Amino acid sequence: MSDAVLSLRDVTRTYESGDEELHVLRGVNLDLQPGEIVGLIGPSGSGKSTLLHIAGLLEPPDGGSVRLDGIDAVNASDDVRTGLRRNYIGFVYQFHHLLPEFDALENVVLPRLIHGELRNKAIPEATRLLTALGLEDRLTHRPAELSGGEQQRVAIARAFANNPKLILADEPTGNLDPKTSDAVFASFRDAARDEGVSALVATHNIGLVERMDRVLALENGELVSYQPTE
């Protein structure tokens, strides 16, 4: 659809494995609408991370198109793709990848400074995001001083730091225990709703499925609508 935040058409990706070819994605089609939270499930090796990497312009498809906010990202220049990644997309991974020498606030402020924002403007916005995620008392704590759930909340705040339209999350709670996983995903979902951001979330956690707007499954390299069994 024309107003889709992310639109994939006939996306293919094949990898060489010795003398064999692994057809990971076979003509994937996807439209992600503004404010929509979509789950992406499938067994290990099914291509979930590859799909997220292509959607996030971290690797090119072998064929097909990727459009972000209507912009043809596949045929765009390197500068345009870099700008789209920086200004349009936020990433959340299974491991937080926070900078250990910086505290929580600094980890969230840094992307805004790189983006060119003045520090006196970046700090209040980063504080707002961290407070919304329940970390108002942990702003000056470094990652080693935070629990696993708190570290992941900081990573989520960092992903929202540059006001993206799209968040791509790859197993964002996969490194957490079930109780913490549930709480962190609730924080992620609430932040996406509050900020009006679309999200594509790859997960093995079927328990999170019912909390998303819809869920897609990768099966034999194709995306199909997931219908939970009764």
From TrEMBL:
Return the Gene3D superfamilies for the record. Answer: P-loop containing nucleotide triphosphate hydrolases
Q: Which InterPro entries match?
A: AAA+_ATPase (IPR003593), ABC_transporter-like_ATP-bd (IPR003439), ABC_transporter-like_CS (IPR017871), ABC_transpr_LolD-like (IPR015854), MacB-like_ATP-bd (IPR017911), P-loop_NTPase (IPR027417)
* Protein species of origin: Hyphobacterium lacteum
Domain ABC transporter positions: 6-230
The protein depicted here goes by the name ABC transporter ATP-binding protein
Task: Report the Pfam families cross-referenced here.
Answer: ABC_tran
Q: Which GO terms describe its molecular function?
A: ATP binding; glycosyltransferase activity
Q: Which family does it belong to?
A: Belongs to the ABC transporter superfamily.
Keyword annotations of the record: ATP-binding, Glycosyltransferase, Nucleotide-binding, Transferase, Transport
